[in-house]
Amino acid sequence: MKILVPTEIEASRLRPKGLSPEIIGMGPVEAALGAYQALLNQNKGPVILAGIGGAYPDSQLNTGDIALASVEFFGDLGICYDIGFQPFSEKLPVKKECSLRHPLLEKALAILEDNGFSPECGPFVTVCCATRDISRAELLAIKHQNALIENMEGFSVALVAQKLGFPLIEIRAVSNLLTEPDSPWAIDTALEKLGEALLCLNQKL
Question: Which chain regions cross the lipid bilayer (predicted)?
């Protein structure tokens, strides 16, 4: 099982647990290039993208909670106005959605539930800039099937995995609530929970 993480921050917390994450870079561009390089000579899956993320309003998620993506949306791809966001015309051949539904996702959810976790599963949204405005957070969540989690790498890595033929599981621990943009991020709590979940999956997936 190959574990991909965006930065050394995640990797440094996971290595002491006996895990061997590979750093792919932060943000949509670096993550796409890093994931492609990491998976190009990979012979088999599964592949896990692991990291932290912000919980959207109405997601019912709290800091430290675990969530898995059923689909990744590219939330920043479109036309941005000061009062809202509009996707490009359907006439443009733009891909901004990548499904992560496959049997391994169901298996991962079952493993986590059987081992005392309460993971949520639903849409994630990939953005280029972390959201600090509550109204924008609400808009992004509503426009993307009541999304659970905001992140900066998921869509890119999902697209790379899809094109190379690998099943991808994306798992995130909540580090911050987008309804509380000025609150400190609970990175330590989130990464501790993420490490526990990954250990469980690494042993049984």
Answer: none
Q: What total number of domains does the chain contain?
A: 1
Alpha-carbon torsion 77, 87, 170, 187, what sign?
A: positive
Cα-Cα-Cα-Cα torsion 154, 6, 93, 68, nearest 10 degrees, comes to -10
Radius of gyration of the chain (CA): 16
pLDDT at 93: 75
Q: Among residues 188, 198, 179, which one has the least CA distance to residue 60?
A: 179
In the structure encoding, which two tokens stand for residue 6, read together? Answer: 């965006």
Segments of the chain with pLDDT less than 50: none
CATH of the domain at 54: 3.40.50.1580
Among 65, 66, 53, 56, CA closest to 154: 53
Q: Give the per-residue pLDDT at 150.
A: 98
User: 2 Cβ partners below 8 Å, 6+ apart?
Assistant: 22, 38, 39, 42, 45, 46, 47, 48
Closest CA to 122 of 85, 151, 88, 80: 151
Position 116, amino acid: G
The residue range of the domain holding 144 is 2-204
Global pTM reads 0.94
Whole-number pLDDT of residue 195: 98
Looking at residue 79, what is its pLDDT? 80
